[in-house]
Each structure stands twice: as structure tokens, then as C-alpha cells.
């Protein structure tokens, strides 16, 4: 028996800390993951919207940059309209948006405050409107007092004309070098009297016929007014349209081409002009293209504070 442990008491433990461990100062880095959702109105959506008759849809292909001093982080929105960033340092950033072939107006806050309060990241919504700068709408006025088949003092058609130009790039648009254009015409030689205007005659895309007479300058992809400049004195209106529904420039232009080519079938190859302005003519053709491609004329009224017209005129 060990007499030095009388009564069964346990010996006390002693720990001597090692003397060679360096002192470490731990500083937490303030950063977080971040998602920026870029949206614009979606009109014609089947589910509608709670208050304005439209819904919001993400816009893909937008380059979103956030800058603080000399530091910039850039990401491009995905199919859901989301730009994603990892480990963004905390601070106050300025947000800029860019997309080829569009002019973007950011209707939200251009300042972004990043803090580390959410370890799983945070999401910021930006609601925008976009103007498509590679599609241009041209409109000549109707000369109601000029006889059918005659020309007005400028040499223009008495019915006036609405046509749409498509450019390959913004640079081509600035130089007015369209790659294609579309308008709806009575077939060459089909109009012989005022009565024909109201009863209707055979129509032709761009006034072009592969088997009959065509207007000068007409082709399957060029309107006879293809070369008319936006500075042409007789024009009553010319504008780059605003867009909805979150599509890319290539998608909007593809819709315009497809709908231009199918219009003749949809209206049974007819050109007509009723006294109320209805019928199938260049004006209703352009309005049809705009409606089908979700293009709008910006007139300062319409969807909330965003300023789209509810019509194409």
C-alpha cells in the first residue's frame, strides 16, 4: 500500500504551456458572395402581374460591373438575369451596366453597399429599360390629297411609308449601313384606281416579286426605301425602339425577320387601306412586327415609371 495516498485522493495534474508558440493576431476579413438580378418588364406573360399588368423577367447577357476605387468586379448575367460574384470585399460600390447593341437605363440605385451580415451571400435587384440600337423604325406621312399613282412634291409615294431597318452592329447603325430592311407594299402595278385601295390588291414584302415586276431597289431583304437616311427631310418620325421580355439583340432581330417573311401568308398576300386607317399596309405591317417582337415606341407614358407606350404608334 502506498502510504503517500492515504484516503484514495487523486494527485493534482500540472500543465506547463510550451514557451515556443508565437502570438497570433486573428483579423476577420469582411467579404460576402453577391448576386445581382437584372430585370425588365415582360408583357404578354400568361400569369400577369399583381398591379401593372406585366411581370418582371431576368435579362440575359448584360455585363454588370461593380467598382470601388481602382477595384472592379465584372460578371455577365445568365439565362435568369443573374450576375454572380464570390468573396466581394465589404464597401460601397458603383454599379454600371453594359450590353452590346443596347442603351441601358438603370431605374434602380447605382450604388451598392456590401457588408458581411449575410454569410450565405445577398441578392440585389436592378430594374432597367433597354433601347435596341440596331433596329430602327422609319415613318413617312400619308399625303391624303395626292391621287393614287402620283407622287408628292418630294417624289414620295402618296400613301407615305413605314419601314424597318436592321443593322449588324451599333457602328453600322451610326453610319447608317443597314444589312436589311422590311416594308409591306401593294405589288408593283397592282393599284390602278382609288377603289383598289379599299377593296384590296395583291401585296408583296418590300414590293418584290420573283416572277413579276418589282419596285426599284426592292429585294427579299431590302425595302425600296432601304437607302433613305434618318435625316431625310420628309420623315415624320424615326426612332430606335425600346424592348421588353428580356431577349438578346439577335433574338429580337430573328423575330423581326421571321414575322416579316410570314406576314404575306398571314394576310393572304393582301394589301389594302380602309378609311379608318385599318387594313394590311405598311403601317399595320410595322405595328405587327413591333408587337410580335416586343418592341415599343418610347413616348413617356405606359408601364409604370418606365415610360413605354401601350401602342406602337
Tell me the domain tally.
2
Kindly provide the radius of gyration, computed on alpha-carbon positions and rounded to a whole number of angstroms.
32 Å
Query: What is the terminal-to-terminal distance?
Result: 110 Å
* Overall pLDDT: 82
Give me the number of helical elements. Answer: 4
Unreliably modeled segments: 45-52, 150-154, 299-311
Structural class: alpha+beta
Largest sheet: 7 strands, mixed
Which strand-content bin applies to the residues? 25-35%
Total strands: 18
User: Helical residue percent?
Assistant: 10-25%
Q: Can you describe what's shown?
A:
It is a single chain. The protein has 2 domains: 31-129, Immunoglobulins (Immunoglobulin-like, Sandwich); 135-306, no CATH class. Helices cover 13% and strands 31% of the residues. The chain has 4 helices and 18 strands. The chain has helices spanning 170-174, 194-199, 249-266, 282-292, and strands spanning 31-42, 55-58, 63-68, 71-76, 82-89, 91-98, 102-106, 111-114, 122-132, 135-140, 161-166, 180-182, 184-186, 201-205, 237-239, 242-243, 270-271, 295-296. Strands 1, 2, 5, 7, 9, 16 and 18 form a 7-stranded mixed β-sheet that branches. Strand 3 (63-68) and strand 4 form a beta hairpin. Helix 3 packs across helix 4 (282-292). The longest helix has 18 residues, at 249-266. It is elongated, with a radius of gyration of 32 Å. The N and C termini lie far apart (110 Å).
Amino acid at each position: 500500500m502506498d502510504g503517500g495516498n492515504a484516503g484514495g485522493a487523486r494527485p493534482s495534474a500540472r500543465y506547463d504551456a510550451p514557451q515556443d508558440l508565437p502570438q497570433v493576431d486573428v483579423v476577420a476579413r469582411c467579404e460576402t458572395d453577391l448576386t445581382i438580378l437584372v430585370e425588365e418588364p415582360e408583357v404578354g406573360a400568361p400569369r400577369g402581374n399583381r398591379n401593372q399588368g406585366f411581370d418582371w423577367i431576368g435579362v440575359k447577357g448584360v455585363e454588370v460591373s461593380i467598382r470601388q476605387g481602382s477595384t472592379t468586379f465584372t460578371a455577365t448575367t445568365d439565362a435568369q438575369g443573374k450576375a454572380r460574384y464570390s468573396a466581394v470585399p465589404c464597401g460601397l460600390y458603383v454599379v454600371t451596366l453594359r450590353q452590346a447593341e443596347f442603351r441601358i437605363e438603370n431605374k434602380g440605385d447605382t450604388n451598392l453597399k456590401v457588408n458581411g451580415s449575410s454569410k450565405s451571400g445577398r441578392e440585389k435587384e436592378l430594374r432597367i429599360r433597354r433601347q435596341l440600337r440596331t433596329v430602327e423604325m422609319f415613318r413617312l406621312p400619308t399625303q391624303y390629297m395626292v391621287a393614287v399613282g402620283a407622287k408628292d412634291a418630294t417624289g414620295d409615294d402618296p400613301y407615305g411609308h413605314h419601314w424597318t431597318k436592321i443593322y449588324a452592329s451599333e457602328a453600322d447603325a451610326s453610319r447608317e449601313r443597314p444589312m436589311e430592311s422590311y416594308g409591306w407594299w401593294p405589288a408593283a402595278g397592282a393599284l390602278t384606281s382609288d377603289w383598289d385601295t379599299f377593296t384590296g390588291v395583291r401585296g408583296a414584302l418590300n414590293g418584290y416579286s420573283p416572277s413579276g415586276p418589282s419596285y426599284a431597289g426592292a429585294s427579299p431583304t431590302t425595302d425600296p426605301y432601304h437607302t433613305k437616311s434618318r435625316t431625310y427631310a420628309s420623315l415624320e418620325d424615326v426612332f430606335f425602339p425600346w424592348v421588353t421580355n428580356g431577349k438578346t439583340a439577335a433574338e429580337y432581330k430573328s423575330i423581326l425577320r421571321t414575322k416579316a417573311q410570314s406576314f404575306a401568308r398571314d394576310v393572304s398576300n393582301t394589301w389594302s387601306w380602309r378609311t379608318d386607317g385599318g387594313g394590311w399596309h405598311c403601317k399595320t405591317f410595322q405595328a405587327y412586327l413591333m408587337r410580335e417582337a416586343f418592341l415599343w415606341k418610347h413616348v413617356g407614358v405606359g408601364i409604370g415609371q418606365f415610360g413605354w407606350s401601350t401602342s406602337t404608334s
